[in-house]
Design goal:
Layout lengths: L1 H17 L12 E2 L2 E2 L19 E8 L4 E9 L2 E8 L6 E6 L22 E4 L2 E4 L2 E8 L5 E6 L3
Antiparallel strand pairs: 1-2, 3-4, 4-5, 5-6, 6-10, 7-8, 8-9, 9-10
Length: 154
């Protein structure tokens, strides 16, 4: 009986989370060397939009003279939280751009947070990386505030 109660409570929590308004995450979402939540670098691109429950995905195509590019926009309501871009083949993830301060790294830092000046972080001009996470790039302003976070395998 207790088990059924827990299942009903958890199901209600998920349903309530899925119905939440813009600008709210249904659960904490972290970007790290492993990827964005359950979206990993080896996730086939056509499966990206099935990996995160409680979000919707818009599929966009950008065609340039060099190559076509497929973009999944990770959304909740009308708020875009991230963009996941395909490689030239359209089969693999090339890059993920974090667009919301609600998505944090493993140090609990995200957009609009100050990036500390510590030995583990290397910077060139306004581009910084943690040594242990070379796939995550942080663009900072003159006050070391994080303005962009990009995940891209090197």
């Amino acid at each position: 009986m207790i088990f059924k109660g827990i299942i009903l409570w958890f199901t209600g929590l998920i349903i309530a989370g899925c119905a939440s308004s813009d600008g709210v995450l249904p659960y904490p979402l972290t970007v790290s060397e492993e990827g964005l939540g359950s979206i990993h670098p080896d996730t086939p691109f056509e499966e990206v939009n099935t990996r995160l429950v409680g979000f919707t995905f818009d599929k966009l195509t950008q065609i340039s003279p060099e190559h076509p590019e497929i973009i999944f926009r990770l959304k909740r309501g009308n708020t875009v939280f991230a963009q996941i871009l395909s490689d030239n083949s359209g089969k693999k993830i090339a890059r993920m751009d974090i667009l919301s301060p609600l998505i944090k790294n493993k140090h609990r830092l995200g957009l609009d947070d100050p990036l500390p000046q510590i030995a583990e972080i290397e910077c060139r001009d306004h581009t910084c990386r943690y040594r242990e996470e070379p796939s995550l790039m942080y663009t900072i302003d003159d006050n070391r505030i994080i303005r962009e976070i990009t995940y891209q395998r090197l």
